[in-house]
Design goal:
The complex is a heterodimer of chains A (336) and B (307). Chain A contains 13 helices and 4 strands. With 336 residues, chain A is mainly alpha-helical. Chain A has one domain: ABC transporter involved in vitamin B12 uptake, BtuC (Orthogonal Bundle), CATH 1.10.3470. Chain A has a two-stranded antiparallel ribbon with strand order 1-2. Chain A has a two-stranded antiparallel sheet with strand order 3-4. Helix content of chain B is 75%, strand content 3%. Chain B has a two-stranded antiparallel ribbon. In chain B, a hairpin with a 2-residue loop joins strand 1 and strand 2. Classes of the chains: A mainly alpha (336), B mainly alpha (307). At the A-B interface, helix 5, helix 10 and helix 12 of A face helix 4, helix 9 and helix 11 of B.
Chain lengths: 336, 307
């Protein structure tokens, strides 16, 4: 980390990301700009998970919960605006500044409560409990008939409004997502270099020793958990806007699994790993079916997961450190 | 009151299913230290095998037997190909690799059997209801499941406490390196134990066939409930799995049956239905949270398995 080569690569990636809309429209593939937005959104969510998973060593299998809660805040606000009804005495809104802030606050609060409970345990208990709590929220939203239950909420008013920007324009929306991703990347980069980040990583390496040094390990872990939940909530709010639709699927446990895969695929505990992982995962999802087509296996192309599952097992068993780690090893140096 | 009794039995019956799944999961974790998400897939394999074999042979009993064999073999295969490479890895690797197994298993089942759920009929001999209390009719099939569950719990108890294999299992869960040093073929023991856990899960799936629709993804719902069960009971403890399973089964069933009506006593019916449905779907997780606050390692903590 911090080497000149990494900085140059990151800068080049940023320039490329800024040019994505122009490149796509040059090739006449403008519809793919939506996929680019999704990559930015999921990269944000995966990066927030990496904060607790990679740097904090907390194996949370329920990160989709915060993603979903953030999305539902935006969806519910939009629903009440369209409906003209009120919730807790307040009317709905589609002002991005208000409803996205609210999404961040609510998902942070949920992360605070669930995190405080889950962090009483560690190891495999923690995995199961975070999974179970996420599932609890999933069933809670399924049971909310007013907000469509299983079917979820369609945002009939379209995307939220932001003064001076037209979010319904896909390119503008992409740049907004990218801006949040870049901002969060900078935040994480600063955080892991700070005293807070050092303590957090030390807790991962040897919790007992940090405790013996008089460090309140639980406080650091919980604070990180809440920060990650808030960022995931923001990503959820963005994804709700992207799809103009929010459903319990956002909180489904497989979504938590997907986010974990993105982190591992890219390279756990590295700054840029989650971005690489999210891009690789979503591109695989998009293009594995196409590969089936070219291999004359069209009838099986909806079953691309039958390849993806074993692929994941192979990555876990043999490509430790993910794509970035593997690339770094091939390049003759280990980034971690 | 009669309805309450009936729902209580339903809760116990759900608990029996959960126990069958959780027992294998908790044993495997307690001894091999591996968390296996694909355990729910074995439940699904059992259900599909029973449905297909019953259809093919025309006999439910034969279907169950075939399901037991198939799920046991699938479990052993799973252990040989993937799981044994995971014992020395950290939990994160185990979670991801077994997640990959789930994706594979679900997709394979979709290819083999399609997306339409299969339905399995209750066998004729177990069809019908019996009067268990004056005025209470209860389906015979559900009673049979409860009886089977008690039987399996007893068998497991005898195996673990009375036999040499059980002694090795207990020794392995306390200190597996020591058992290996003493000359026990630990690799073989792990494979067989994994197969046993798979048979239990497959058995639960086969018995569940006539009650819930046999479809892809059916295993994961049970798996997550089974996680709640072992967290409540204490990871690695079979007794804890039994108590936890019954608690979760009963709380979940009674909550769904009575919570909305209970709430109607002090709020208007429409919101009571809404909140009742929400609360009852959350009830077991709330129980889990309460248990955690007071006993972070479950009701029956196992010293060595916590690690």
């Amino acid at each position: 980390m911090g080497s000149i080569r990494t900085s140059v690569l990151a800068l080049a990636a940023l320039v490329f990301a800024l040019l994505v809309p122009q490149i796509l429209s040059y090739y006449g593939e403008d519809y793919l700009i939506g996929s680019a937005s999704r990559i930015a959104i999921y990269a944000l969510a995966a990066m927030s998970l990496n904060l607790i998973l990679g740097y904090g060593g907390m194996i949370s299998f329920g990160h989709a919960a915060y993603f979903g809660v953030g999305a539902y805040v935006v969806g519910i606000a939009s629903f009440h605006l369209f409906d003209g009804s009120t919730i807790f005495g307040f009317g709905g809104t589609d002002a991005a500044l208000l409803s996205w802030t609210l999404a961040v606050i609510v998902s942070a609060l949920v992360a605070l409560v669930l995190g405080a409970l889950s962090l009483r345990t560690s190891g495999v208990y923690f995995i199961m409990i975070t999974l179970a709590f996420a599932q609890m929220l999933y069933f809670l939203f399924v049971s909310l008939e007013q907000y469509g239950g299983d079917d979820g909420v369609i945002m009939y008013n379209g995307r939220n409004t932001l003064p001076g920007l037209d979010l319904s324009d896909d390119t503008t929306f992409y740049y907004v997502c990218l801006a949040f991703l870049v901002a969060f990347t900078v935040l994480v980069a600063l955080l892991i270099r700070s005293r807070f980040g050092k303590v957090l990583q030390a807790c991962r390496q040897n919790e007992d020793r940090m405790r013996a040094l008089g460090c309140k390990v639980e406080h650091y872990k919980l604070a990180t958990f809440v920060l990650a939940g808030a960022a995931a909530g923001l990503a959820g709010a963005l994804n709700g806007n992207h799809a103009e639709y929010v459903s319990p699927d956002y909180l489904h446990w497989t979504k938590s699994g997907d986010l974990m895969i993105m982190v591992i695929l890219g390279g756990i505990g590295t700054l840029f790993g989650p971005i690489v992982g999210a891009a690789a995962f979503l591109l695989l999802e998009e293009f594995l079916p196409v590969l089936f087509d070219t291999a004359n296996l069209t009838e099986y192309k909806e079953h691309w997961r039958i390849v993806f599952g074993p692929l994941l097992i192979l990555v876990v068993l043999f490509a430790r450190g993910g794509l970035l780690g593997t690339l770094a090893t091939i390049g003759g140096r280990n980034e971690r | 009151m009669l309805l309450f009794f009936e729902q209580l039995l339903n809760g116990i019956q759900l608990g029996v299913f959960l126990f069958l799944i959780a027992a294998g999961l908790t044993l495997i974790f307690g001894i091999m230290g591996v968390i296996n998400l694909a355990h729910g897939s074995l439940f699904m394999v059992g259900a599909y095998a029973a449905a297909a074999a019953t259809e093919w042979t025309g006999s439910f009993a034969l279907g169950i037997v075939i399901a037991l064999i198939v799920s046991g073999l699938v479990g052993i295969l799973m252990e040989l190909v993937v799981m044994r490479r995971l014992y020395d890895r950290d939990h994160l690797d185990q979670v991801l690799a077994t997640f990959g197994l789930i994706l594979f298993a679900n997709e394979l089942m979709t290819i083999l059997f399609g997306r339409t759920p299969l339905f399995l009929n209750v066998p004729a001999i177990l069809n019908g209801a019996v009067e268990i209390l004056p005025g209470v009719q209860y389906p015979l099939y559900r009673l049979a499941i409860i009886a089977m569950g008690i039987l399996v719990a007893l068998i497991l108890y005898v195996i673990i406490t009375k036999t040499r294999a059980g002694m090795l299992i207990r020794a392995g869960s306390t200190n597996r390196d020591m058992v290996a040093v003493l000359g026990v073929d630990i690799a073989l023991m792990f494979t067989l134990l994994f197969g046993l856990g798979a048979v239990f899960a497959g058995f639960a799936g086969a018995m569940a066939g006539p009650l819930i629709s046999v479809e892809v993804g059916m295993g994961e719902q049970q798996l997550i409930l089974a996680f709640v069960v072992i967290v409540i009971g204490g990871i690695g403890s079979v007794r804890g799995a039994l108590v936890g399973a019954l608690l979760v089964g009963v709380v979940d069933t009674l909550g769904r049956a009575f919570l909305p009506d209970l709430l109607k006593l002090f709020m208007d019916p429409a919101s009571a239905d809404g909140i009742g449905a929400g609360l009852s779907s959350m009830s077991i997780y709330i129980v889990m949270a309460i248990v955690l606050v007071f006993k972070p390692s479950g009701l029956f903590p196992v010293a060595a398995a916590g690690r």
